[in-house]
Amino acid sequence: MTFGPFFRKAARLDFDEATSWYEAQRHGLGREFVSEIDRAVLRACESPQQFPIVLRDVRQVRVPRFPYSIFFRVKHDRLVVLAIFHARRDPLVWRERA
């Protein structure tokens, strides 16, 4: 079963801010970041159980090429994205969203 993704508001903000930052670093890098995030979310939607649980029912998928992880949980028929988080940020921030 494939789950449809749903981005919480804070996760969407994380995503938009990171995309803008990468695009400001180099033209086209923001697009590359979006592609990697999309691929990681798709992998999680297709097989969420393959990713480790990091807190209660929250799972983590790491993003290739970029120092980001996607934190999500499965609720009914949706994959709920809680955070798109840089590896150097304080993990307490995303944990408060869980």
List the helices and strands and how they pair.
Blueprint: E1 4-7, H1 9-25, H2 29-46, E2 53-55, E3 58-62, E4 68-75, E5 78-86, H3 91-97
Parallel strand pairs: 1-5
Antiparallel strand pairs: 2-3, 3-4, 4-5
Overall pLDDT, averaged?
A: 92
Report strand %.
25-35%
The number of domains is: 1
| CATH architecture term | 2-Layer Sandwich
The largest sheet is: 5 strands, mixed
CATH topology annotation: YaeB-like fold
What order do the SSEs take from the amino end to the carboxyl end, as H and E? EHHEEEEH
Q: Which CATH top level class fits? A: Alpha Beta
Structural class by SSE content? alpha+beta
Strand order of the largest sheet: 1-5-4-3-2
Tell the overall outline.
globular
The CATH homologous superfamily? RelE-like
Q: What is the tally of helical segments?
A: 3
- Uncertain segments are none
Calculate the terminal CA-CA distance, rounded to whole Å.
Answer: 24 Å
- Tell me roughly what share of residues is in helical segments: 40-55%
- Total strands: the figure is 5
- Rg value: 13 Å
Describe the 3D structure.
This protein has a single domain (4-97), classed as RelE-like (YaeB-like fold, 2-Layer Sandwich). It has helices spanning 9-25, 29-46, 91-97, and strands at 4-7, 53-55, 58-62, 68-75, 78-86. The longest helix is centred in the middle third of the chain and has 18 residues, at 29-46. Helices cover 43% and strands 30% of the residues. Strands 1-5-4-3-2 form a five-stranded mixed sheet. With 98 residues, it is an alpha+beta fold. Helix 1 packs antiparallel against helix 2.
